[in-house]
Description:
The protein is 41% helix and 21% strand. By secondary structure, the chain is an alpha/beta fold. Strands 1, 2, 5, 8 and 9 form a five-stranded mixed β-sheet that branches. A five-stranded mixed β-sheet has the order 14-13-12-15-16, with helices on one face. It has a four-stranded antiparallel β-sheet with strand order 4-3-6-7. The N and C termini lie far apart (61 Å). 32% of the residues are buried.
Amino acid sequence: ITYGDWSSDVCSSDLENKIIYFEVVMNDKDSVIDSTRADGNGKFQLPNASSKLDYYLLRSDDRNLAYLILKGGESIHINGDAKNLDKTYSVTGSPETNELLELRRFERQLSDSLNHQYTVIRDMAPEKKDSAGMNLQRLYEEAMRRFSLDFIKRHPASIVSLSASQYLDKSKDLSVFIELDSVLRFNYPVNRYVQEFASQVYGLKLLPVGSTAPEIKLKTPGGKEVMLSSLRGKIVLVDFWASWCLPCRKENPRMVELYDKFKGRDFEMLGVSLDEDTVAWKEAISHDHLAWIQVSELKKWESKAANDYAVQEIPFNVLIDRNGKILAKGLHGTELEVEVNKAVKGAL
Length: 348
């Protein structure tokens, strides 16, 4: 597939007479820019319709797709097996796309390797699968962080380094976030991803680890006023979420497990909802079995608490020590459980 003149060399007749879509990747729903139909040999051409640096997608269906990063005006050649395009395509003419492929393929190889190890342990010693899963998840996060730090060092001005930054530790790697933000804003001041990243970094700098957590004074669904400062003496996890936030709802079962594991051990959670519909908020609390303290202003993104904590996206959490100091922010998965465990043990 040559992009710019797009002359296709997709290695499979499986594309025969299929429609090929070219889309720009969006946060909510990808937007189709152009399309064409492959010929009887599975070959096709498309003009380069990209006009600015962005993430794009070439696909024949939801399973066979190729992610691209284009600036506009390139002539790109793509080879791949149309029956397994995502795992087989290669690109010439787009350095940024090749950087993206480097990152994605390392992540895939690592995931495949660790998943294989987990499967072996699960089948041979089922009683060890939970602890093994946690250990392998920790290995995954550490390996991805090390690779991403090296990747960003090698590609300090690449837009792909934004994708790599998601694997960094927001507490330990703040200086890397700040430097990357500075370089990318200089090179791509109007790029939407760079602007979103700048807002994220601003939030990280605004309330760094070790600073005092801002007061939260909000009401529960029953109308009782709760203050964050009333929980001093405990390790507190402030969890920003909303009933309308699908990633939040998917995360809630893990949050329930976390709460059940650490409650009664000088640990408390405070859910701060960015809802505006009282009924939807209450129904989500009940449906997801959220037994910890829940409060909200019911002002969605106009929430003062969200602004005070520079919340740019949800779910988002802040771990606070017994003296009201911030220990960590934006933790998920095994990393969150590990940090809570360390904090609780340190508070005893």
